[in-house]
From TrEMBL:
Organism field: Pseudochrobactrum kiredjianiae
Classification lineage: Bacteria, Pseudomonadati, Pseudomonadota, Alphaproteobacteria, Hyphomicrobiales
PROSITE patterns: HTH_ARAC_FAMILY_2
Protein name per its UniProtKB record: Helix-turn-helix domain-containing protein
Gene3D superfamilies: Homeodomain-like
Entry keywords, A to Z: DNA-binding, Transcription, Transcription regulation
Length: 295
């Protein structure tokens, strides 16, 4: 069980949280994501503890006191924390990624001691002391300021450290094209080769770390089907299969279960246990207890 204290403040559409805890193991899997209602947000978090190890689907990060990092709440991760505390902000994913020209930030880490890290840490902890506001205008102003500072900090870090994860312009154009044409049955390698006038080998190299371009398309389609189920759990299975370009129901369900470790019906069931709905938080203790254990 979770041992410690937890506080949550709603500032319009933005949430600010504080947690104090003993050594804990956290696990956020697809089942928890399905019931959270937070799958469209990034968690910007400052760690005030001794140490933590965080696994982002195979990528491991070592986190220390004063570090700032980002979780995509629509993605899985697990972590082992020593005793300590965290200050957190929930920011809308689409607004964050727009400010970063589409760059995906799940697992981004800014180390303590850097000026840009200290700036973000001060902002995160400072907002925890703000009086809650509910008007859209005030909320958008605060969130816009935080996102602008985040984008500046990440851009500065990339320039100073030659961040290898910066996405080249062509890669960004390819991903944008895929996103806009994801439901097109004819979206495949040949379509991309014709559209961008590049060789098959060059296209593969651009997405080699993800397992190739067709794997990228398949996983994007699975995520799109998953998001549609979250938005509308009553969506019929045949509609998902046809709309997102899968060969058939059996192939779709096998791929879905292999990737999410859940069936579409299980996603529908978990969605009935929402912890955050229409900006309202329900039963946060049970929610946290579902994916935390004392080390």
């Amino acid at each position: 069980m979770l041992e410690g204290a937890f506080g949550l403040k709603i500032i319009g559409a933005m949430m600010s949280g504080y947690a104090r805890f003993k050594p804990q193991r956290f696990m956020r899997d697809w089942r928890i994501i399905s019931r959270s209602g937070l799958e469209d947000f990034y968690l910007l978090q400052m760690f005030a503890g001794a140490s933590a190890m965080i696994d982002f689907a195979g990528t491991r990060l070592s986190v220390s006191r004063g570090d700032v990092y980002l979780f995509d709440f629509g993605r899985v991760f697990s972590s082992n924390y020593s005793a300590g505390s965290t200050y957190s902000l929930l920011l809308q994913r689409d607004r964050v990624e727009k400010a970063m020209n589409g760059r995906k930030l799940h697992g981004t880490l800014l180390k303590a001691g850097l000026p840009q890290t200290q700036l973000l840490a001060d902002v995160i902890t400072g907002i925890a002391n703000l009086t809650p506001v509910t008007t859209d205008t005030n909320t958008l102003d605060v969130e816009e300021a935080v996102i602008s500072l985040l984008a500046l900090a990440l851009h500065y870090s990339a320039l100073k450290e030659d961040d290898p994860s910066l996405v080249p312009v062509l890669r960004m154009r390819v991903l944008d094209f895929i996103d806009k044409n994801l439901a097109e049955p004819c979206l495949d390698i040949q379509m991309l080769l014709s559209r961008f006038k590049v060789s098959r080998a060059h296209l593969y190299r651009m997405f080699e770390t993800e397992g190739g371009i067709m794997r990228v398309i398949r996983e994007k389609r699975l995520h799109a089907a998953y998001q549609q189920l979250l938005r509308n759990p009553a969506t019929p299975l045949p509609h998902l299969v046809e709309h997102w370009g899968f060969a058939g129901s059996d192939q779709f369900q096998r791929s879905f279960r292999h990737y999410f470790d859940m069936t579409p019906n299980e996603v529908r069931h978990e969605r009935t246990k929402l912890i955050v709905e229409d900006g309202r938080v329900r039963d946060i203790q049970s929610y946290l207890a579902g994916f935390t254990t004392v080390q």
